[in-house]
C-alpha cells in the first residue's frame, strides 16, 4: 500500500523479528534535540532513531516531554537545537502540513476529530494529500475531480473496513462514544497512507476490552501496511507487549533506550517510575 | 411513509456521492426546477418579482456566499455589505466603461473583482479568529462604504453621488433599466442562482470543502493532517466574495437599478445576510435558501397582515416588524441553533416513519 508513494529506505539494512516481521533501516533520526519554552527546557539533548517498520514506544512519567517529542516529529514545534533526519536527509524547519505531505500522520492525546463532519468525511479528509484535482475541476465536478473522489473513496472504505467502523460511516462524529472516536481518529490518520504513524496515547481512558481491540488494530496496521509506528502510552503492559524498542524519558532527558526487556531491567528507568529524589 | 430511503440502493460510490442521493429528494428537486422555470415566468408580475422573487434569489446567492465562509470554513464575516457594494460598483464601472459588454460577463467579472478584494481583506484571518476576525471584517465594511462615498471616480463624478444602471439587453430583451420586464429579470437571476448553487455544492462536497470544514472544526488538527491553512482560508474568502459580489451586482443592476452606497450596502445588509444563514442553518446550502426565503418573506407577510388584515398604520406595522424579526432571531439562536435546515432534517426523519411511532 505504501510502496507507490514512499520508496523503501535501503533493502540491505535491517533484520527480521522473532514473529517474522521485517524491520528495515533507519527512516528517521533525531539528533541532539533541545526544545525550550521560554526558560523551561522541555527536551534536553535527546537523540534516538526510528527504523522502518518497527513499533517504537516513547514512555516516561507525566511531564517527561513525550508529547513535545511527538510534536517535534510532526513539525508542530521546531526545536531550538538539534536536527531531524528523515530518509537520510536533514529536515529543514517546516510547517505541520508540509510534514504531513512527507508521509507522517498522527493522532492526538485529546481527540482532535472534525466534530461537525461524518466519519466518512473525516476519513476522506485524511486522504487530502492524495487528491490533486484543481479548484476549477472541483467546482465543475468534471473529469479528474469526480474520478479522484471515487478512487479515494475506495481507499477510505478499505480503511473503514479494516477498522470495522462500516456501520457508523455516515454518522456525525460528534454523536459517537469515546472509544469509537479514538478508532475514527486512527482511521483518519491511516487514510493518509503514512510511512510513519505517530500515536499519542491511543489507549488513554479505555477499558480493557477497548485496549485489546486497539492493540490488535495497531499490530495489524504495522503488519499489513508495514507502517512504522511511534507510540506514546502509559499502560506498561501494552507498551512492553507491542513495541520493538522503547525510549524512556524523564524530565526532558532520555534515560533509557532499547528492547522492552532491556528497558525493564534498566536501573534508571526503575528509579524514574518508582520515584527517587532528583538532586 | 412519505419520505423513504428504503430500497434505494447504490451500487457505485459516484451514485452514493450525488447531490440528491435519495430518489424522493431528486424528484422534488426536479419539481422545484419545473415550477421555477416552466410556470413562474408565465405568471410573474412586477409586484411578485420586486417584493419576493428577485430579492429572494439575490439574497440566496449572498447567503450561499457567506455560508461558504462562515458556515463551512468557520470564519465569521461582517463585511458582506461592503463586498456587495464592491460587486455593485464593479458592475457599474464595467457597464459604463464597456457599454458593449453583455450582462453575464459584467456580473461574472464583478464577482471576480470582489473575490480579489475579499482575499485582500481575508489576509488577517491567517492570524486572528473568532470575534477578532469579525471586527477586522467590520473594518472592511466601513472602509469600503466610505471609499465608494468619497472617491468620485467610482460613481463617475455624478452630482448626486448615486449610481444608476443603464439599460442593457440580452437577446433583444432589456435585462436592466426601467424597461426590463419582470420575467426577464427573474430568469436572469435564476440562471445565476442555479449555476452558483451547483458550483457551491460541488466545491463543498469535494476535497476543498472538506478542507474548509476541517479548518472550521479544528484548525490545528487540520494543519497536522496536511491542510494548508493559508490556502484553505483564502480560497474560502475568494469563493465567498465571488458569490457575494455577484449578489451585490445583481442587487444593483437588476433589482434596485439605482443605489446610494450607505443606504443599500450599509452594516444592516451585513447583518441581514448573517441572520439569513443563522436562521437558515450554518454549513448548509439548503439553509441558505431557507434563510433567504424566510427573511425576504417574513416582513412582507407581517406587513400585509398588520396593515391589510388588522388595519394598522404602516409606521406601527414597521416597528412591530422589527420587534418580531428580532424576537425570532433570538428564538432560533436559543431553540434551534442549527436553523431551518436542521428543522427540515428532523421533519424528514419523522416523515420516514409516519404514521407509525417506531
From TrEMBL, chain A:
One of its GO terms (molecular function) is ATP binding. CDD domains: ABC_Mj1267_LivG_branched. InterPro entries: AAA+_ATPase, ABC_AA/LPS_Transport, ABC_transporter-like_ATP-bd, BCA_ABC_TP_C, P-loop_NTPase. PROSITE patterns: ABC_TRANSPORTER_2. Residues 28-276 form the ABC transporter domain. It comes from the Bacteria. Keywords: ATP-binding, Nucleotide-binding, Transport. This is ABC transporter ATP-binding protein. It comes from [Roseibacterium] beibuensis.
